[in-house]
Specification:
single chain, 530 residues, alpha+beta, Beta-Lactamase, five-stranded antiparallel β-sheet, rod-shaped, disordered C terminus
Length: 530
């Protein structure tokens, strides 16, 4: 160990003499006692008594010397054994991978092994004489731990340390106080990697658990999206199903009616709060609800743990006392179409994980809104197409009638003709004057209805190739019906427009007329040109 004093913690507290000095000194003492006794006995005793006393003292002294010698030999053997054991212990301490330190009552390091220097990244001999508190990441916490250590027989735990180069580490420690007076043993083991690995494992498990919950939410949402696309029913089912992931007292889907006005598309209340459902506001002005405005304008989710501390908060469900709230924007593409609201009566009831799951729910809700809107539009288009199909069928039935019956037909469907979603026109057969055109015909060629009615197609220059018009009229005079003939027309701007044309003769209001249906689809026109 570093900086070991002459009497270290592990040195034996023995100081025996050598064998020779331990034997000679008792013999000299015995001879001195014998001579002194003889001198004392000379005046009044005979020589035999003197000799006997001397022999007796010599025998006693010899036995004493042997006993002292034996004791000294045993002491020397014990010292050698202790020194050998001391060397073994020192070898073990020096070769230990754990940092071992001996501290005094003031946390000053007295001794330390090589592993301690390597762990704290100080040079050899740099620890003794310095306080271990210098390496504490939190000195106040270490003081508390040290006081607790001195008050018990043995303690274990973890402490955060800062190496000499500033790097932080987490060490597991075992401390034994008062192994000798004013000496305390501290053993440290670097547990930074295992603890961080454990933290990473825990975080990974949390992410996996969260991912599973997210997958369950999306799977459940997908099942609902496949069942019923009616918006109110779909949103209500989604919110009720998501109660297990984000518990709430009430949840609402608020959609933008105008850039500054929201309406409640769906509101779901927990079983204990059903009576509040009728008190929910139907429309909201975002200027009156700053937090709702903030979520929509900043397009960021918001978690309010204590609603009472938010000056900008205003209740939008009358009769309730919201304690904590989550608001998540509903986004379709790059456009925010509303927000998803979750509210609870208690404070600090929502977590960051629930805020994240609310974002997942918002994605599913936005998809549901998109699908519901598409379903509504598809239903509208379906009805329009049915109407257009009926109108087109009527128009084609007229063009397919024999000429004799066409001459008996009138013009009773002028409004249907105007609103038809296909380009149609009615003109006089001989003069070519326009009598009526559909709105689609106006959009296809660019002329307004007022410009076309009473004008001749030849005068307007609608036919890019006049020969096509002559050929068309020749076939119609022969009683033939024209179906999907490829022609090239001129638009109001003078551009050429490839088109497919169907035409036939009919009698309208007593006049011989030309009924024309035009398909100016760019795709079909491109095929023709190629």
């Amino acid at each position: 160990m570093q900086s070991i004093a002459s009497h270290s913690l592990l040195d034996p507290p023995l100081d025996a003499h050598t064998p020779n000095s331990g034997i000679v000194s008792p013999l000299v003492a015995m001879l001195a006692v014998s001579l002194a006794a003889a001198l004392l006995l000379l005046p009044g005793k005979g020589p035999i008594a003197l000799i006997a006393a001397s022999l007796f003292l010599i025998v006693i002294g010899s036995l004493h010397a042997r006993l002292v010698h034996a004791i000294q030999v045993r002491l020397l053997d014990a010292r050698r054994s202790l020194m050998d054991r001391n060397r073994e212990i020192r070898t073990l301490i020096e070769s230990s991978k754990d940092a071992i330190l001996v501290l005094n009552d003031e946390m000053i390091c007295v001794e330390a092994n090589r592993a301690a220097s390597e762990m704290l990244r100080v040079g050899a001999g740099g620890l003794p004489g310095h306080s271990i508190e210098l390496f504490a990441a939190d000195k106040s916490e270490m003081s508390v731990q040290w006081n607790g250590l001195l008050a018990c027989d043995r303690s274990q735990g973890r402490m955060e340390l800062a190496r000499a180069d500033g790097e932080r580490l987490i060490a597991e420690f075992t401390a034994i106080p008062n192994v000798r007076p004013n000496r305390h043993l501290l053993v440290l083991r670097d547990a930074t990697r295992p603890i961080r690995a454990q933290a990473v494992t825990y975080a990974t498990q949390c992410v996996a658990k969260s991912a599973r919950r997210e997958a369950d939410i999306l799977r459940s949402a997908n099942r609902m999206l496949a069942q019923d696309l009616t918006m109110d029913h779909l949103l209500r089912c989604l919110l009720e199903n998501f109660h297990s992931a984000v518990p709430y007292n009430n949840a609402q889907v608020l959609l933008l009616e105008t850039p500054t006005r929201l309406f409640s598309a769906c509101a779901v209340f927990h079983a204990t709060d059903r009576e509040q459902e009728s008190s929910c506001l139907d429309t909201f002005d975002t200027e009156d609800f700053p937090l709702l405005k903030r979520v929509i304008e900043q397009n960021e989710s918001l978690l309010v743990g204590r609603v009472q501390s938010e000056i900008a908060w205003r209740e939008f469900v009358e009769g309730t006392a919201t304690g904590s709230w989550i608001g998540v924007p509903l986004q379709l593409g790059d456009e925010v179409v509303g927000l998803l609201s979750f509210a609870r009566t208690g404070t600090e009831q929502f977590t960051l994980e629930q805020l994240r799951l609310a974002g997942v729910i918002a994605v599913s809700t936005a998809v549901a809104i998109k699908n519901a809107r598409l379903e509504e539009r598809a239903e509208i288009f379906r009805k329009e197409l049915e109407c257009c199909f009926q109108q087109t069928t009527t128009a084609h039935s007229i063009t397919e009638q024999p000429t004799s019956r066409k001459r008996e037909s009138g013009w009773p469907f002028r409004e249907a003709f105007r609103s038809a979603p296909i380009a149609m026109s009615l003109s006089t057969f001989d003069g070519g004057d326009f009598l009526e055109v559909s709105r689609r015909f106006e959009l296809s060629l660019g002329w307004k209805r007022e410009e076309l009615l009473g004008s001749k197609s030849a005068e307007l220059g609608i036919w890019a190739n006049p020969a096509d018009r002559r050929l068309l009229f020749e076939r119609l005079r022969r009683g033939e019906a024209i179906c999907n003939a490829a022609v090239t027309l001129k638009t109001w701007t003078g551009e050429s427009m490839p088109a497919f044309l169907s035409a036939d003769r009919l009698i309208s209001e007593g006049r011989d007329c030309l009924f024309l249906v035009l398909d100016g689809s760019p795709a079909r026109g491109s095929e023709y040109v190629n």
